[in-house]
Design brief:
Radius of gyration: 22 Å
Structural class: alpha/beta
Number of helices: 12
CATH class of the largest domain: Alpha Beta
Oligomer: single chain
Strand content: 15-25%
CATH superfamily of the largest domain: Acetylglutamate kinase-like
CATH topology of the largest domain: Carbamate kinase
Shape: globular
Order of helices and strands: EHEHHHHEHEEEHEEHHEEEHEEHEHEE
CATH architecture of the largest domain: 3-Layer(aba) Sandwich
Distance between the termini: 49 Å
Mean pLDDT: 93
Number of strands: 16
Strand order of the largest sheet: 3-4-2-1-7-9-10-8
Helix content: 25-40%
């Protein structure tokens, strides 16, 4: 019987020196053998790296951005480590490697592969700093490159896991280490069979924790967040949001599918298949029990509000006076698949198809270019997708008010609407 526990700490839990001190305090009485600690990039590092990539693609000077990102990490280390500590040359070396990669040619054609090589530096630097700080606090952990464990295909930015090879790596490489020490590794990243770095999708560190748990048949996974657990709405937007003490796998999966940011959408399936419970707990108040997601949880009928920003609303209208047919939908979906774009909402009428997508760099122009010969295409940027599970009429009135609704859809248990994003 496995005794392994998986802890995952996201970007907010390692965003600055005070956060790392808090992380060490959480682990001080919990650290033991058979514990895997998965960490994300620090704070908004991934966003900063994406901005650098955008500037490079547009042939703009990104050197100041790169220097600022390096200084951000060095500043955290200056607050935590003595001047002579080895972490400082290690970080500088990472950024030498990063700039070496950034000096290579980049185009829209190879963007996804380039993206994965660059974005992975956020997790690599973060995990090295966390590991060195824990050791400085006499909390001995081993550093593990997740790319030596998680094997994927070459679908860059949205890599699919090779479960058989990943499980073999975890059993042969990770399990023997865990028998003697806790191990710290990175979320979000993997490697294909050619040795190229891949990523599992934005915010994919939760998924990494679930992958390792399934491969090691862990006792549980705990995701440490800046909220007391899974709530029925974002407490930053809805101060009266309520906590779910427990959720079933299916209900949690439904919430993540529609965009609930507290858990990555792919996290639930491997845990449900292995019946491994998932705990969502607060790193602000680690003694709170949080939310338990497991097999036998009762159905919760509390309405859940999920808001997704940075959405694109696209409408495809046929130009030859025919009605929408299956081939029209298939054509659009095939182009979306090629561009690795996922639909968050779909609605058809007699002569048009409307879809809602996450905004992604330069992908809109590519999609329009590919389909403008078949359809008249209109789009709106800067939209917000509102999803309410188990909606109540009074709640919808309060939520939407006098907003201009661009698209609306209601099913038995779900309400969705697209509106112009509000400034907050």
């Amino acid at each position: 019987m496995s005794k392994t526990l998986i802890y995952k700490f996201g970007g907010a839990s390692v965003k600055d020196a005070a956060a790392l001190v808090n992380l060490a305090d959480i682990l001080r009485n919990r650290l033991r053998n058979n514990l895997v600690i998965v960490v994300s990039a620090m704070g908004k590092s991934t966003n900063a790296l994406e901005e650098i990539l955008r500037m490079k693609l547009e042939n703009k000077d990104y050197s100041i951005n790169s220097t600022n990102l390096k200084d951000f990490h060095l500043s955290i280390c200056r607050d935590l480590f003595p001047e002579s500590h080895m972490i400082f040359p290690q970080i500088k070396n990472y950024f030498i490697q990063l700039n070496h990669e950034l000096n290579k040619a980049l185009s829209a054609v190879n963007y996804d592969e380039f993206y994965d090589r660059i974005i992975s530096f956020g997790e690599l630097v973060s995990s090295r700093i966390v590991m060195e700080y824990l050791c400085l606090q006499n909390l001995l952990v081993l550093w593990q490159d997740a790319r030596e464990l998680v094997v994927t295909n070459s679908d860059f930015r949205f890599a699919k896991v090779n479960w058989e090879e990943t499980k073999r790596n975890c059993q042969l490489q990770l399990k023997p280490k865990l028998a003697q020490f806790p191990v710290l590794t990175q979320g979000f990243i993997g490697r294909d069979r050619q040795g190229k770095t891949t990523t599992l999708g934005r915010e994919g560190s939760d998924f990494t924790a679930a992958i390792l748990a399934a491969c090691l048949q862990a006792v549980s996974v705990t995701i440490w967040k800046d909220v007391p657990g899974v709530l029925n709405a974002d407490p930053k937007r809805f101060p009266s949001a309520q906590l779910f003490d427990e959720l079933g796998y299916a209900q949690a999966a439904e919430m993540t599918y529609y965009g609930a940011s507290v858990i990555h959408p792919k996290t639930i399936k491997p845990l449900a298949n292995s019946r491994i419970p998932l705990f969502v707990r607060s790193f602000v108040d680690p003694d709170l029990p949080g939310t338990k997601i497991h097999q036998n949880a009762p159905i919760q009928n509390l309405a859940a509000i999920i808001l997704k920003r940075d959405q694109l609303l696209l409408s495809f209208k046929v130009t030859d006076f025919t009605f929408i047919e299956e081939r029209h939908i298939s054509l659009i979906y095939e182009k979306l698949r090629q561009l690795k774009l996922s639909v968050n909402m779909l609605q058809t009428s007699a002569i048009s198809i409307s879809i809602v997508l996450d905004t992604q760099l330069f992908k809109l122009q590519q999609l329009i270019s590919e389909l403008k010969g078949e359809f008249e295409i209109k789009y709106n940027e800067g939209m917000e997708l509102v999803t309410v599970l188990h909606p109540q009429k009074e709640l919808l009135v309060d939520l939407l008010g006098e907003d201009e609704i661009f698209l609306e859809q209601t099913t038995r248990n779900t309400f969705q609407a697209v509106r112009k994003a509000k400034i907050s």
